[in-house]
């Protein structure tokens, strides 16, 4: 099976995880939206690294997992840029559309993240 469907599967799991953390932080802890988004993103990046390492790119080298995780986090941080720009832009334009902003940001970031993961992190 191609890596893209596997990547999207892991991403869907990550998205659920991301939404749960984001919702918990904003609804239960009453955290500020941008802070909650950053915290949820960081937690989710680690969860998706594990999923992509075991499922999507299972044939990639398993040596030096800490180095690979660092590359993954760097790639995720790079992909966070378009994610957060879209998120903040939609919030700025339509303040009440937090979850629309969230999902649009995730979709833009996912494309960038797939390219980085397939070409650099799990090479």
UniProtKB/TrEMBL annotation:
<keyword id="KW-0472">Membrane</keyword>
<feature type="transmembrane region" description="Helical">
    <location>
        <begin position="7"/>
        <end position="28"/>
    </location>
</feature>
<feature type="transmembrane region" description="Helical">
    <location>
        <begin position="34"/>
        <end position="51"/>
    </location>
</feature>
<feature type="transmembrane region" description="Helical">
    <location>
        <begin position="72"/>
        <end position="92"/>
    </location>
</feature>
<protein>
    <recommendedName>
        <fullName>GtrA/DPMS transmembrane domain-containing protein</fullName>
    </recommendedName>
</protein>
<dbReference type="InterPro" id="IPR051401">
    <property type="entry name" value="GtrA_CellWall_Glycosyl"/>
</dbReference>
<feature type="transmembrane region" description="Helical">
    <location>
        <begin position="98"/>
        <end position="116"/>
    </location>
</feature>
<dbReference type="GO" id="GO:0000271">
    <property type="term" value="P:polysaccharide biosynthetic process"/>
</dbReference>
<keyword id="KW-1133">Transmembrane helix</keyword>
<dbReference type="InterPro" id="IPR007267">
    <property type="entry name" value="GtrA_DPMS_TM"/>
</dbReference>
<dbReference type="GO" id="GO:0005886">
    <property type="term" value="C:plasma membrane"/>
</dbReference>
<keyword id="KW-0812">Transmembrane</keyword>
<comment type="similarity">
    <text>Belongs to the GtrA family.</text>
</comment>
<feature type="domain" description="GtrA/DPMS transmembrane">
    <location>
        <begin position="6"/>
        <end position="122"/>
    </location>
</feature>
<dbReference type="Pfam" id="PF04138">
    <property type="entry name" value="GtrA_DPMS_TM"/>
</dbReference>
């Amino acid at each position: 099976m191609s890596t893209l469907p596997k990547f999207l599967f892991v991403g869907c799991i990550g998205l659920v995880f991301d939404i749960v953390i984001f919702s918990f932080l904003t609804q239960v802890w009453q955290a500020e939206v941008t802070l909650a988004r950053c915290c949820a993103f960081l937690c989710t990046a680690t969860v998706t690294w594990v999923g992509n390492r075991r499922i999507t790119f299972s044939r990639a080298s398993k040596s030096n997992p800490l180095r690979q995780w660092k590359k993954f986090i760097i790639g995720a941080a790079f992909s966070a840029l378009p994610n957060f720009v879209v998120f903040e832009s939609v919030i700025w334009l339509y303040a009440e559309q937090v979850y629309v902003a969230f999902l649009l940001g995730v979709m833009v970031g996912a494309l960038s993240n797939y390219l980085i993961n397939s070409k650099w992190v799990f090479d």
